[in-house]
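Retro notes - structure team

What went well: the batch runner handled both jobs without manual restarts.
What didn't: labels got mixed up in the shared folder, which is why I'm recording both outputs here explicitly, each with its sequence directly above its tokens.

Job 1
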Amino acid sequence: MFLYLVVPLSEDQHHRALLLSFRLNEDSVIKHCIMSAKPTDIPDVASSIPFRYFQRLMEALSNLLENSPYLEFILRWCQEFCKAHGHSIQENSRTLHPSLRPVEQGNY
């Protein structure tokens, strides 16, 4: 893993680490940052992620839903991010539908 992500993760700055992982656009790093967050931190981290990363986050979460045994944890991420950005999701529903489809279908 990239060294400059270790410090934010070790200092419980999961929102910062996740933002850095989005800039790197490395799927494995994004997933690692998602899975490293404590369940109690998910609402704060999800609300601090800018909406412009919505599509990328939903792609990573959809993939994790299909391949991870931690279904409830991943669904919590989906729920909290959608709660935090619900208005923007509604406004952009046509363009975001492909990103939401795997979560919506529930093929996990």
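Job 2
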Amino acid sequence: MALAMALSLAFVACDDANDPETEAPDLNVIGQVDMAQRDRGLALDQGVGEDAAPQPDSGADVAIEADMEADAVAADAIVEIDAEPDAAIDVDAAPEPDAAPVEGPARYPTDQTQSPITPHVAANLRAIADRAPHQDDVFAKVGASATASLAFLHCFGGNRIDLDGRDALQPTLDAFRAGDAAGDDPFSRTSLCATVGWSAGAAISGDPSPLQQEVDAIDPRFAVIMYGTNDIEQRDIDRYGGNLLTLVDTLTEQGIIPVISSVMPRDDNADSDALVPSYNAVVRGVAESRQIPFIDFYRELLPLPDHGLGDDMLHPSAFRDGGLAACVFTDEGLSYGYNIRNLITLQALDRARRIAVLGEDAFDPPQPEQTYAGTAADPIRVTALPYADVRDTRMAPQSALDVYPGCDAPQDESGGEFIYRLDLDQPAQLRVYVIDRGSVDIDVHLLGDPTDPQTCLNRAHTGMRVSLDPGTWYFSLDTFVNAQGPQAGEFMFVLVADP
């Protein structure tokens, strides 16, 4: 298979001006290599970390890619993948015609605003709620400026509300309006964990963190979360994903159900806007891995005039009619960003409350369990883009690949690995990421043959951009081994199509 690539390194400085985090972020480097240059010893990944590939010699043929502009609509489009198994690979026999498929965790598709609540998801939400007693009529607001804004949810605490016929939402609206969030209803409360300029890491920094302070203050059953707009400016998707996972886990461990949202387009900055689909893929991956509600705010904004953004082309717009009217859900009102977000957030809270508090049945049918082993013989199939999948190499199905000489990579990768298979019926440019936390160190390798490390075409510690021809491609998510042993653990594998 031909691989058409050009070596491209993207170095972007971090702007922490509005972020209380002081730790310098890891430097993300996204690399590509031309097949004709592969045997010249070019480094494929100059990421940071103990296992980062060596830097190229000063005379190496390196080109800096400056044009990062991308149309957000095209970048987020679903790319259907030819996922038919290779004839040479054995698959399990079809079940008996009358055998009921085993239910598994729900996959969260990209063509709907509210993630599905299958019986599996419903059981998970109830299990989270069973961990600790909380006020079922209170939620926390967790986010940055678009969450701290008076245009977000505050209007539900007032009298300027027009559900425009969505009467089924009234019981949930009434329930939360009656909730006691430290003296206010949760809609009207000024959250300790919603502050202008914050990133996801700010919410979980300190002891106690702002997140914990808000939880302790109001004792919520739910938490509405949106981070990413400021995180994009740090150009550190690995840290972003890790912080978001930690934030969500902190809540679920305490019996609080997170309701997490994708972020807005970045029409103020083309380079930042090109990264929005990748960051939103991470948000979806976090929600899916934890089987918690996900709201695709980004999807709802794309068709709106000016993407539902205000004059700064960064924050949502709000409908005004003799004053702020962000809870008016007429057709006119729903052409504004905050009005859209308020409606879909209320809908998400309604769905979660009906399942976890009222005990209603699941709203969506069960999804069959995915039975791919993740081995070279039975790789995990990537069936659509964007794609995100969370696994743990402490439970890896194989440890067959130790080094990747095809990528001139001497690093010891003798820990366990998962193999993914991608079938393309048309050329594709992809952003590829691996996200891990703490001492966990998982690296991504692009292969032509999942059994032969000599066919390694690219390797990355954090991320790469590749241009792939039609055909079958494999990715090995492998565990780095240092003097302390395998740095195994949980990782997220993310694939996003560039336009």
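One thing worth noting from job 2: The chain has eleven helices and 18 strands.
We'll revisit the folder naming next retro.
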